[in-house]
Design brief:
2 copies of one chain form a homodimer. Chain A is an all-alpha fold and 746 residues long. Helix content of chain A is 80%, strand content 1%. Chain A contains 20 helices and 2 strands. In chain A, strands 1-2 form a two-stranded antiparallel sheet. In chain A, strand 1 and strand 2 form a beta hairpin. In chain A, helix 18 runs antiparallel to helix 19. Chain A is globular. The two termini of chain A are 32 Å apart. The C terminus of chain A is likely disordered. At the A-B interface, helix 5, helix 10, helix 11, helix 12 and helix 14 of A face helix 5, helix 10, helix 11, helix 12 and helix 14 of B.
Amino acid sequence: MDFLYTNLIYLIPVFGLIGIAVMAVKAAWVTKQDAGDGDMAQLAGYIADGAMAFLRAEWKVLSYFVIVAGILLAYSGTTVHTSSPVIAISFVVGAFLSAFAGFLGMRIATKANVRTTQAARTSLSQALKVSFTGGTVMGLGVAGLAIIGLGSLFIVFFTIYVKNTGGDVNGEAMAKALDVLAGFSLGAESIALFARVGGGIYTKAADVGADLVGKVEAGIPEDDVRNPATIADNVGDNVGDVAGMGADLFGSYVATMLATMVLGREIKSNDMFGGIAPVLLPMVIAGLGLIFSIVGASFVRIRTETSSVQKALNIGNWASIILTAIATIFLVNWMLPNDTFHMLRDEIPGGGLKEGSLEFTKTGVIYSIMVGLVVGTLMSMITEYYTAMGKRPVLGIIRQSSTGHATNIIAGLAVGMESTVLPILVLAAGIYGSYHFAGLYGVAIAAAGMMSTTAMQLAIDAFGPIADNAGGIAEMSRLPEEVRHRTDNLDAVGNTTAATGKGFAIASAALTSLALFAAFVGVAGIEHIDIYKADVLAGLFVGGMIPFIFSALCISAVGRAAMAMVEEVRRQFREIPGIMEYKAKPEYEKCVAISTKASIREMVAPGLIALISPIIVGFIFGPEVLGGMLAGVTVSGVLMGIFQSNAGGAWDNAKKSFEKGVEINGEMYYKKSEPHKASVTGDTVGDPFKDTSGPSMNILIKLMSIVSLVIAPHLHKDLNHSPRLQREIHIQSMVMPAKQAVKNKI
Amino acid sequence: MDFLYTNLIYLIPVFGLIGIAVMAVKAAWVTKQDAGDGDMAQLAGYIADGAMAFLRAEWKVLSYFVIVAGILLAYSGTTVHTSSPVIAISFVVGAFLSAFAGFLGMRIATKANVRTTQAARTSLSQALKVSFTGGTVMGLGVAGLAIIGLGSLFIVFFTIYVKNTGGDVNGEAMAKALDVLAGFSLGAESIALFARVGGGIYTKAADVGADLVGKVEAGIPEDDVRNPATIADNVGDNVGDVAGMGADLFGSYVATMLATMVLGREIKSNDMFGGIAPVLLPMVIAGLGLIFSIVGASFVRIRTETSSVQKALNIGNWASIILTAIATIFLVNWMLPNDTFHMLRDEIPGGGLKEGSLEFTKTGVIYSIMVGLVVGTLMSMITEYYTAMGKRPVLGIIRQSSTGHATNIIAGLAVGMESTVLPILVLAAGIYGSYHFAGLYGVAIAAAGMMSTTAMQLAIDAFGPIADNAGGIAEMSRLPEEVRHRTDNLDAVGNTTAATGKGFAIASAALTSLALFAAFVGVAGIEHIDIYKADVLAGLFVGGMIPFIFSALCISAVGRAAMAMVEEVRRQFREIPGIMEYKAKPEYEKCVAISTKASIREMVAPGLIALISPIIVGFIFGPEVLGGMLAGVTVSGVLMGIFQSNAGGAWDNAKKSFEKGVEINGEMYYKKSEPHKASVTGDTVGDPFKDTSGPSMNILIKLMSIVSLVIAPHLHKDLNHSPRLQREIHIQSMVMPAKQAVKNKI
C-alpha cells in the first residue's frame, strides 16, 4: 500500500499504456483480416486516400494555427500564477495528441470498413466483430492517449512547480501546475473544434450533394458507384463521424479531468497521497474506466444471424458502466479520508466558512459520481426515444409527411424543440443533485464519472460509420443482396448508437462546461456572477447568441458546399458520356476536392468566434461579464445542440421507416411515394443539423470555457477590472503585489 | 403651473380619453365609407362573422380562466405588502380592457377591409386612407384604453394606499399601490398570451391548410373563392395579426409603464409632484406619445398612383418619433429636479451607498430614453434588412431554392439564426448604455421611450392585415386587375411593416422584461442572482428550455390543425360536386370551425406553462432560482423570437420574389417553376414560425416576468427561503415581524 500511496501519480499513465497496448493488438487483428477482392480494395483505397487527403489539408491549416496560438500563449503567459512559455508546450502537446488520436481512429476505420464488408460475406457475427473491433481501436486510442498525455504532463508540472519547490499542494504552486496543464486541454479542444466543424461540413456537403443529384434527380440508389460524389460521401463518414467524433470526445475527456483537478486543488484533504487525492481522483477514475471498457468490449458478440446487435452492444456498455461504478465506490473510499471537505474559496480570511457554503464527505463524492452516471444514461435513453423508429416522435413526422415537404419539416422542428425538455430537466436535476452531494467538486466529478467509460462509448460510436462505410462498399461493389442485408443491419444499429452517443456527448459537455465554469470563477477570483447587473446580463445575451451564429455559419457552409457539389455532379453526368451505363468512371477526386476545400475554408470563421470572443469580452469587460457570456453560451449551446441533433436524428429515421413501408391513415407507403419524398427533404435538412452544427455545440461550449479558464489568471480581480490598455500601463507595478495578494488569500 | 403640479396625476387618463375620442371620429369615418356591392359585402360578412365567432369562443374559455385566476389572486393576496383582494379587481380590469382593445381593433378591421377594396376601385391614395385609418383606430384604441386603465387605477390605488394614509411615496405605502397595480398588467398580459397564441394558431392553420390543398394540390390561386379554407384564412388575418397583435402591444405598453413605475418608487425625488415624478413619468411620456401619434398619423397620405406607400408610412412614423423625442426632453427637464438620484436598494442602512452603485441625473434619464428610441429604430431596420426582397439574406434563400426544398429550408434556417447577431448586439449595447446613463431606472425608461409611440406603430402594423384582407376580398370577388394591383401594392408594404413591427415588438419585450426583472429583484428583496450557484444555474437551464417547448407546442399545434384543415378541404373537393366550376359554394363555415376549435384547444397548454412555471419554481426553490429562470427564458425567448420571426419573414419574401421573376445563375425563374415550389415549402414552414411561435416569444417572456413580479412579495427573502409547505405553517407568525422588517429596511 505504501508503494501505491507514494507512486499512484506515476501509475496513471500506465493505465493509458495498457489501453494503447490492447489497441495495438486489436489493430493488428483487424489489419490481418481479409480485405476482399480487387473492386472492393480499389474502392476502399479511394476512400482511404480521400480521408488522408482531407487530414493532410486540415493539418496544414491547423499547424499554422497551433504555431501562432502557441507563440501568443508563450508570449502572454507571464502574469499572476501562470508562469509562462511552458503553457505553450502543454498546448502543442494537447493539439498534437488530439490530432493523432483522430488519425489513429481514421486509419483503422478505413481499414475496418472493407474488411467488415468482406466479413459480411460469411456471417453477421463476423461482420460485427470486425467493425466493433475497429471501433474499439478508436476508443482505446483516444482514451489511452488522453490519459498518457494528461497524466505525464501532470507528473512533469507537479514535479517542477510543486514537488521541487516544496510548494503548497492546495496553494499557489499547485495552481500554477494546473494552469499550465490547462494548455493541454486548450490544445486538444481547439483541434477538436476544427476537426468537428471541418469534418462535419465535409461529410454533409458530400452527403447532401450526393443525395440531391443522385437519389432525387438521377434516381440512382445511395452509394451507387455511378454517382461522382459517392466516394466523397464515404470519406465524409470517416472524417466527420470518426476523426471528428474522436477529437471531440478526446477533448471532453481531458477537459472533464482538468476541471475536476482544478477544483480538487481547492479541497484540503488529509489523505495518504500527500493531500492531492482530490486532484488525482478524476484521472484514476478515467484509468479504471479504460480498463473496464476493455473488459466490457469483450462482451460484445453475437452467435447467430438473428441475434440482436443492439443487445450485444448494450450488454458491453452496461458491463463497463456497472463495473466502473462499483470499482469507483471502492476507489473513492480508499483514496479519500473520512473527513468533512469544503472549498478554499468558501473560507473567510479570519476563519470559518462563508454563509451558505457547502461541506461534504467522501460519501457525497460517491453519490455525485453516481449522479453523473445516471444523468449520462438517462440522456442517452431520452435521445433514443426521440430519434428511434416506431416511437411517437418519429411516427408523428411520418404522419405529417403525408401532407408534403412543409409539414414534414414543421413536424421535425417541433420534435427537435420538444426533445429539449426532458434532457434539460435531467441536467438541471443532475447539477442540483451533484452540487448538493459534493458542491462544485461534485458537479465536476459527476462529469468525470460520466466520461469514465469514454473508450467504450467511442467504440460503440465509431462502429456506426465503419458499418455505414462497409454497406457503401458492398453497394458500390454490387455484392449479393445478403451481404448488403447484413451491413444494413449493422448500419441501422449504428444510427441508433450515433443518436444516443450524441445525447451522451451533449450531457458530458454540459457538465464539463459547468465544471470549467466553476473552475474559471475560482481562478478569476470573482465571488459572484450576478445576472441582475446590466453588463453581466448583456454578456448573457451575447453568449446566448453565439451558438446561433455558429450554427448559422455551419449549416450555411454545408448548404453552399452542397450546391457546389450538386453543380459538379450535374456537370459530370452531362459532360462524361457513359457514366450511367457503367461504361465510364466518374471523376471521384473532383468531388473529394470540393468537400475538402470547402470544409477547410469554412471551418475557420466559426472556430475563430469560439476562440476569440471570450478573450475580447474578458479583457474589455472583465471576468464577471465573461462569466455571464459563458453561462449564456452554455445554456443556449446545450439547447441548440439537443434541438438540432435530435431533429436531425428523428428526420433520418422517419425517412428510413419508409424503406420497410409505413402506414398512414390506413394506407401503406413505401420508397418513392410522395410522403417518402417529403421525408427525404426532412432528412436532408437534418443532415447538417445532426452531423455538423448540432454536435459542434458541445465543443463550442467547452472550448469557450477552456479559453476563459486559460485567460482567467490574467483577469484576476485582485489585479484589476479595467480595460486592457489601462492594464498594460500598470501591469509591471501591479504584478508583484498582486501575486502577494493572491498568495496571502490562498 | 401649480395646478399642473398638483393635478398631473389626474390628467393622465385625459390623454387616453383624447385618444379614444379621436378613435371614435376615425371609426365613424371608416364605417360610413362605401362597403361595395352584394358579392363583396357577403364575403366580408363571412369574414366578420368568422372573426366574431372565434372571439366569442375564445372569450368563453378566457372568462373561466379570468374567474379562476382572479379568485386565486384574491385568496392568496394577503402577505407582506400586497394587501389583498383588490389585486384581483385590478387583474380583471386589465384582462377585460385587453380583450376589449382586441375586439375594437378587429371590429374596425373587418369593416375597413371591404371598404379598402371598394376604395381601391377608385385610387391607391383612397385605399391607403381607408386601410391606414382602420389601423389608426386600432392603435388609438389600444393606447387609449391602456392609458385610461392604468392611469385611473393608479389614481385609485394611490389615493387609497398613499394619499389617504399619508404613507411614504418611496416606501411601503407606494409599494402596496404598485403591487396591486401589477395585477392590471398581469391581466392584460395573460389575455395577450392567449390571444396571440390562439390567434396565431388559427391564422396559420387556415393559411397553411388553404395553401397546401388549394395552391399546391388543386392549383388554384390564393384567396380563390372556390377554396373552402379561404374565408378561414382571411378571418385568421384578423384574429391573429389584428386582435392578437393588439393584445400583445397593449400588454407590452402597460408592462413597460408598470416596470418603470415600480423602479421609480425607489428613487427619492425632491420634485414638485409630491416626490412621485419618477413614477408618473412613464405614463406622461406614453400620453405625449399618443398625442404625437395622432399628429404623425395625419402625415400619412399619398397624392398619386405612383407615390410610395412605404415612404408615406415612414414619414408618419418618423414624425411621431421625433416629435415625441423632443417633447420628452422638455418633459423630463420640467418634471425631474436637478438632483442626483439613486435607487433605495443601493443604500446602506447606516448611510451611504453600496460599492458599485450608480448615481444619475435627469440628463441621464433623457439619454436613456434616447437609447430606447435608437434601439427600437435599429431593431426595426435590422429586421427589415434580413427579411426584405432584394437584400443578401433573401437573395441567398432564392439561390438555394434552385437545388430543391431541402436547401431552401437550410438557407432559411441559417438566415434566421444569423439574424440574431446584430439585434442581440444592439440590445446588449442598449442595456449597457441605458444602465450606464440612469441605472435600472434607465433600462426601464428606455423601454418606455421605445414604446411611447405604440399607437403609431400599431396603426402601421394593423394596416397590413387590413390591406391583405382587402386584397383577398378583391380576388374572391374577381374584381378587375387594377384593383388587385392596388391592394397588392398595399399588401407588399404591409409585409415589410409586419416584419419591422416584429423587430420592434421583440426589442420592446426584451427591454420590458429586463425592467420587470429589475423590479422583481427589488420586490423580492434579493441582492444577487448568482449564476455561479448550482441551483440558479439549473434555473437558467430550465428557463432557457421553456421557449423551445413553447415553440414546439405552437408549431405542432399549427401542423396538426393544418392537417385537419387539409383533410376537410380535400373532403369538400371530393364530395361537393361543382366547386371547381363555381357552381357550388364550399362549406366555408366548416373550415372556420376547425380553425376555431383547434386554436382554442391548443392555446391552453403553452399558456399554462408560462403562467404556472414561475409559480412552481418561485415557491419551491425561492426567488434567486426564479431569477435565474427568468434570465434564461428572456435570453432564449429573445433569440428564438428573432430567429423564428426573421426566418419566416425571409422565406415569405423569397417566395414572393418569384412572382416578379428572379434570376439564378443567369436563368430567370417565375411562379410554378421548381425553385418557386421549393420556396413555397419554405414559406409554409415559415408561417407558424413568423406568425405563431415567433411573436408569442415576446409575450411569454413578459408574462413570466410579470407573474414573478406579482408573486415576488410572497417570496420576499425577509420572509423566508423555504418551500411553500413549510411556509404556510409559519406564515401567520411571520407576517407581522416581516412587515416590520420590510418597513424598517425601506
